[in-house]
């Protein structure tokens, strides 16, 4: 990007909302620049429970509109990204002292029928003496319910939106912070700082979209000097990961005496993901981490249901994120709405700014669409809605049938180990053709860093997905950090440092 360039939209924030907005806008013909102070999905968007779901528990708070919207998006996203989003059946053991059976049946009936459902089976009651999900549960639990939602590789969802935005003409600047913005009558003049080089650049934008997540208010009150009309409430959600706790592909949703729910989800083949907590948070969002109390809470929550107790000593990884929820007058953080508000400041004689408050990963596409509806009067030349029908990169799989795609992929690449072929297909979908371009045997994949991470994949991530660091590669573009030991991680870090020292023309030849 040349300093002083004029763009239609400057999007601040490289989480799922920012990336989704940049993609939608670029596809409508607007010139777009997105800046993110860290890596894409560095914060809230990579710290979710990894679900695309309607939010069954939101029905108890009468958020029917939000649940319907989320269920509609669940159906769409299963079609648009069948490689990184997969159907998942959830099992809810029934505990009569917490919620009566009739209430659960009524809630599941609504969940099944609030929106048109074609891809996922409906809910039903089950007998744990006859169902595979009963095996790891305490024998006092005899009956339950099963219903459908979907899992997602959350950080990859963000990256794929950014990739598509770039391919449609947007400029994506990671590790770039907006440090100042001056509001004029027609344009914002913004100063951007590269946190890698320390260099600054200037960009002129007809409109700024503030999608900074936990920093949305501080950005308004600081660099944008435009006090917010809405406010956010920061709530920390933490998760733990253990070795696999059960031998089937269903997830669990457990009710707790405090009325919260906790999930136990099959994760990365060999692990179980447990979460989440809801804790008020007021510190720096970049320094968020799980507490010992939260770890104990999650272990105790699932141990109420599993025959074998889960202890903190079993935790192999944990993570935490800060959710920027709309401020409401409710005491319980779990009851704060997961819906969103869009605030457009378009005062006469001043360049406009639109800010995003709240939201959840499932509804990011709809949110982006509504942002563009708000901006339509400002950009009369903008094209119409399009994202509901265009697959994300790698998601252009015939009939959204991932199983058939994987079968054909494995057949065509029989030289790939089955587990690696499955992981490539799940992560990259049809883009595996680019990753494996010119490669016809394992040796051509290059250096093996550990687990099944080869040099070819690392180069692909650096070239196409803005990956620069060990953390980018092992914890956001993949979850191979769960499998690589310290020696392998150090080797990868050294290799990346060596690549950073290679002159650009030579690096282009090596890529």
Estimate the strand proportion: 15-25%
What number is the mean pLDDT?
94
Instruction: Tell me the major beta sheet.
Output: 10 strands, mixed
Rg, rounded, reads: 23 Å
Number of helices: 14
Overall form: globular
What is the CA–CA distance across the termini?
22 Å
CATH level-3 fold name of the largest domain: D-Amino Acid Oxidase, Chain A, domain 2
Structural category is alpha+beta
Find the CATH superfamily of the largest domain: D-Amino Acid Oxidase, subunit A, domain 2
Total of domains: 3
Number of strands: 20
Approximately how much helix is present in the residues? 25-40%
Q: Please name the CATH architecture of the largest domain.
A: 2-Layer Sandwich
Element layout with pairings:
Elements lengths: L4 E8 L3 H12 L4 E4 L15 E2 L11 H17 L4 E9 L7 H13 L10 E4 L15 E10 L1 H14 L3 E3 L2 E8 L4 E7 L5 E11 L5 H6 L10 E12 L7 E5 L5 E7 L3 E5 L3 E2 L11 H12 L11 E12 L13 E6 L7 E6 L5 H12 L26 H11 L5 H11 L3 H4 L12 E3 L2 E2 H10 L5 H7 L9 H15 L3 H7 L1
Parallel strand pairs: 1-2, 1-10, 2-7, 4-12, 10-18
Antiparallel strand pairs: 3-6, 4-6, 5-6, 8-9, 9-10, 11-14, 11-15, 11-16, 12-13, 13-14, 17-18, 19-20
């Amino acid at each position: 990007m040349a300093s002083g360039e004029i763009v239609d939209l400057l999007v601040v924030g490289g989480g799922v909302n920012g990336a989704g907005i940049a993609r939608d806008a670029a596809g409508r013909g607007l010139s777009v620049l997105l800046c993110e102070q860290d890596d894409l999905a560095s914060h809230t968007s990579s710290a979710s429970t990894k679900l695309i779901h309607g939010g069954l528990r939101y029905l108890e708070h009468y958020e029917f509109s939000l649940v319907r919207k989320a269920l509609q998006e669940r159906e769409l996203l299963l079609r648009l990204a069948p490689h990184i989003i997969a159907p998942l059946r959830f099992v809810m053991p029934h505990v009569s002292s917490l919620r009566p059976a009739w209430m659960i049946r009524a809630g599941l009936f609504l969940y099944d029928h609030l929106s048109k459902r074609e891809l996922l089976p409906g809910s039903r009651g089950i007998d744990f003496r006859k169902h595979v999900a009963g095996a790891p549960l305490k024998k006092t639990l005899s009956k339950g319910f099963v219903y459908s939602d979907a899992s997602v590789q959350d950080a990859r969802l963000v990256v794929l939106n950014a990739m598509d935005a770039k391919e449609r003409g947007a400029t994506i600047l990671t590790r770039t912070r907006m440090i100042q913005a001056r509001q004029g009558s027609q344009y914002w003049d913004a100063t951007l700082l590269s946190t890698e080089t320390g260099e600054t650049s200037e960009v002129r934008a007809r409109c700024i979209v503030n999608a900074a997540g936990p920093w949305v208010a501080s950005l308004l009150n600081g660099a944008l000097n435009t006090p917010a009309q809405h406010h956010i409430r920061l709530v920390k959600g933490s998760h733990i990961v253990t070795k696999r706790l059960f031998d089937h592909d269903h997830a669990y949703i457990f009710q707790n005496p405090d009325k919260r729910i906790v999930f136990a989800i099959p994760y990365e083949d060999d692990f179980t993901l447990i979460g989440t907590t809801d804790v008020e948070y007021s510190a720096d969002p970049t320094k968020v981490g799980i507490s010992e109390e939260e770890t104990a809470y999650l272990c105790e929550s699932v141990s109420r249901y599993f025959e074998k107790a889960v202890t903190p000593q079993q935790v192999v990884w944990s993570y935490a994120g800060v959710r920027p929820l709309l401020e409401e007058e409710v005491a319980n953080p779990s009851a704060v709405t997961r819906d969103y508000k869009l605030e457009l400041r378009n005062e006469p004689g001043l360049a406009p700014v639109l800010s995003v408050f709240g939201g959840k990963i499932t509804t990011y596409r709809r949110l982006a669409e509504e942002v563009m509806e708000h901006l339509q009067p400002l950009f009369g030349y903008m094209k119409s809605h399009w994202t509901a029908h265009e697959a994300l990169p790698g998601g252009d799989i015939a009939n959204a049938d991932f199983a058939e795609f994987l079968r054909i992929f494995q057949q065509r690449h029989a030289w790939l180990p089955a587990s690696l072929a499955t992981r490539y297909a799940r992560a990259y979908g049809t883009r595996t053709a680019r990753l494996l371009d010119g490669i016809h045997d394992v040796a051509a994949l290059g250096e093996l860093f550990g687990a099944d991470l080869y040099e070819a994949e690392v180069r692909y991530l650096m070239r196409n997905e803005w990956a620069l660091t060990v953390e980018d590669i092992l914890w956001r573009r993949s979850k191979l950090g769960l499998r690589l030991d310290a020696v392998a991680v150090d080797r990868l870090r050294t290799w990346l440092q060596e690549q950073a020292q290679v002159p650009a023309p030579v690096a282009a030849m090596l890529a």
